[in-house]
Design brief:
three-stranded antiparallel β-sheet, 21% strand, globular, alpha+beta
């Protein structure tokens, strides 16, 4: 019986060392149709993005990031976004842009890191319309 407290202590310590699953479940996700939810769950970061971030584990966009409501503009071959509620336009890294992937409803989708590592935007799908 004396081993139980020690085992619980080891288990608790192990949990503290595990990397956190950082993307947060939002109640609105429950209302998304299954085929659309499946689209989000399939989207992957690019090899170039993982290399730049030095994060080989960062494979699936929605496992470690959240989508953001934003406006998007393209100037030449560069994309920028303005997150809802802000006035600042920010550059979208070229290595995260995946123009050949169609998005649900044809709208642009931007995933921004939610791990606390300050990676910033990690996946961007212009959606064919660029809006």
């Amino acid at each position: 019986m004396q081993k139980l407290p020690a085992l619980l202590c080891v288990l608790a310590s192990t949990c503290l060392l595990l990397p956190s699953a950082s993307a947060r479940w939002k109640e609105q996700y429950a209302n998304i149709p299954p085929e659309e939810r499946a689209w989000y769950e399939r989207q992957q970061t690019t090899a170039e993005t993982r290399e730049r971030l030095r994060a080989a584990w960062y494979m699936i966009c929605c496992d470690h990031s959240d989508t953001v409501n934003a406006k998007f503009v393209k100037s030449g071959d560069r994309w920028q976004y303005q997150e809802e509620g802000t006035s600042q336009w920010r550059e979208i890294p070229q290595d995260i842009v995946q123009p050949d992937v169609m998005t649900p409803h044809g709208k642009s989708v931007l995933f921004v890191d939610a791990t606390g590592r300050n990676f910033g935007p990690v996946c961007f799908f212009p959606g064919g319309t660029g809006t």
